[in-house]
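Protein modeling request. Please complete all fields; requests missing the sequence field cannot be processed.
Requester role: graduate student
Desired output: 3D structure, token encoding
Chains: 1
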Amino acid sequence: MSMAVLLIAIVVNLLFSYKCQKKSKAFLFLIVAFDAILLLSFKFLAGYGSINGLPLGISFFTFKMVSYQVDLYKGKISKCPGVIAVASYFAMFPQVISGPIMRYSDFEKNKTLSGVEDEFMAFGSKLRMCFDKIEEGLVYFVLGFAMKALIADYLAMMWNDIGTIGYESISTPLAWAGVVCYSLNLYFDFWGYSLMAAGIGVMLGFPFVRNFDQPYSSKSVGEFYRRWHMTLGAWFRDYIYFPMGGSREGKLDTARNLIVVWVLTGLWHGVTLNFLLWAGLLLVMILFEKFLWSSKEKLMAVIGRIHVLIIVPITWVIFALPVTRDLIDYLKRLFPVYGPGVAVNSGDITKLMSMYWPFFVAGFVLLIPGSYGFLEKNRKNRFIRLLTLILFWVCAAFVSTKAGNPFLYFSF
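Delivered output (412 residues):
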């Protein structure tokens, strides 16, 4: 089904693109509506159990299609590209399943990297350029592979163990450890995928697409989501928030625009109540930060950090638990102001943390901006490249000894 949906979407978007290039507002509206209805229909069908899961990558390739049509209409793409080029952009295999959401302007840059614009470039120079790109892309790929295989997958095991115990039975300390566990699991799972996809793109001659920029070092929730899943945030900014007026037309209009963006963000992830609640809580924090606390610098410095380091991780639990009963049970264990006391299974945290603490440590080390920044900055260093070679085989060994753990964003 996934392949059929992708092929139908590609054909329809290709047919409409010629009219969008000719500045037809009617055809632009129709194709954007088609892409939006296609996405939301499958979201609702999957959310209410009418189909077994979403077509892989539908959230990502439909957003790429919308951005292409709008950019074509606005003249940001100089001429209507060929059918093969556009279809390749929509179905670019490293990104089609879970992003990042590359713009067509970045996709076009591959022409320069492959030497098409310089027909007289020496063959040896072209070959050297190709090998350099393959080597550079492999470094990004291996770093992402390590985040997935050596950190995210093991934290996912702990999160599954917590679910096996039963959310109503875990102790309050383990509930809080679970908040940290799932936050790190999601972060390194998706950051790892983004680096792997971007690394493959670099190997193929495309520019590196950055999707994360140390979000947990942010000073506010607004900044956090400019650094987390950057290509998705930029998409909503450029194709929803700015066209509605952004923050240029007064506080009420700005608040309205933010509400629209965050409702759509929740729906993009899913139509179940937990995603709308998750998006709503983030929206409330962003509105308070923007309109109430931003003028009070010292207060904002404290509250912003509390939001990023405590409240945002709690919202990930809401994000993770679509079943309302599970979510209520988990929140009761986090904040045991009613119901069973904190003594429920008081030793459970000791048992689980004795097994999984190394993966917490590794995650916290990589949360330090300078640690990953050092690896990225020195990725061409021979020692770093030797380290990545060793790391690749370590990851391969770890993966071969355990069952595969799908990427979390495959669900979206």
